[in-house]
Amino acid sequence: MERIEQIFAFINKKAEEFERSSKSTYLEGVLTTLRGVLDGEFQFPVEAATKEETRKAIQLAILKGMRESSQPNHQMTPDSLGLLITYFVEQFYEEKLQNGMISILDPALGTGNLMFTIMNQLDGKILAAGVEVDELLIQLASEIAELIEQPIELYHQDALRPLLIEPADLVVCDLPVGYYPNDEVAKDYELCAKNEMSYAHHLYIEQSLRYTKEGGYLIFLIPATLFESGQAEMLHKFLKKHAWIQAVIQLPENIFKSKQHEKSLFILQKKSDQLRPPKEVLLAKVPNMSNKQALSLFFEKIRMWKENNLSK
C-alpha cells in the first residue's frame, strides 16, 4: 500500500501543479504527468512497483479527477467488480487460458480500468482491444497501458459505428446508459426504437454480439432496471434470437452511490450450432464483499452451476 500511496502522491502533486500553471483540468494534468514519466522527464518515487500497484495508484488520481469533473461519461468501474468479472472469465475460459490466450474487446473502454484489472490478473494471457469516443479518456488509457506494460489495440471512435476489429472470444463492458443521439447510425440496428430515441446500452449489446465469435461470452455491467423500460420487450426478443442468457448476478447495494446507480452483471453467450444452451440460468446475488464466509458460499454456487451447465 505504501508504494501505491507514494506513486499517487507524486502524480497528484504534479497534476495539481499543471492544473495551476497551464489552466488545464486535473485529469489533463494527470495525462501530462504520465507522459512525462514515459518520456523520462519525471520518475516515480519508488522502484520495483508492480503493474497492479502502478495501475491502482494511477486509478486513485483519475478517480480524484473524475469527482471534480462534471462530465457524465467520466466514470470508472470499481476494482471489486473488475476482479469479480475476472473470476467469471477464468471459469468460462479455464481450458483456453491454461493452454494459450483469449481475445477480449471492451467497446466502452474509458480509461481502461476494467480491462487492465483483468489483464493484470491474467497477465500475458489476453489479446486486448478497446474502443472509446472520448479523446482524453483514450489518451489516459494509452499512457496507462504503456506504464503497466500491457499491450492493447486502441480505437478512438464511436463504438456504435462499424469497427475495424476481428470478432473476439469475449466482450466485457460497463455499458454506457442513456439515449443514443445519432438516429442515422441507430437505424442500422435491430434494436433501433421506432417512435423515440434508441437506448445506447441496448445498441451496445447488439454491437457487442456482432463482434463476438460464435459461442463466445459477453459480460456486461447493466443498470439494475434494464428490463423495466419501455424498450425492454424489444430487447427480450432480440436476445432470444441471438444469444443465450447464462447468468444474471445482482451486485451488493453498498458499492453504489444510490439505488438509481445500482448495477447487475449480465452474462450472455452468442448462439452457436455446435453448442447447447445452459440447462438453467444462474441467478445469484453477490453478498457483501467483506463477508468471507458468504462470498465462499457464493463462489461454491457458481462452481456447482458451472459443473452442471458448462460441461461438454
Automatic annotation (TrEMBL):
Lineage: Bacteria, Bacillati, Bacillota, Bacilli, Bacillales
Superkingdom: Bacteria
Location of the DNA methylase adenine-specific domain: 77-292
Protein's name according to its UniProt entry: Class I SAM-dependent methyltransferase
GO terms under biological process: methylation
GO MF annotation terms: methyltransferase activity
Keyword Nucleus assigned: no
The entry's keywords: Methyltransferase, Transferase
Entry-linked SUPFAM superfamilies: S-adenosyl-L-methionine-dependent methyltransferases
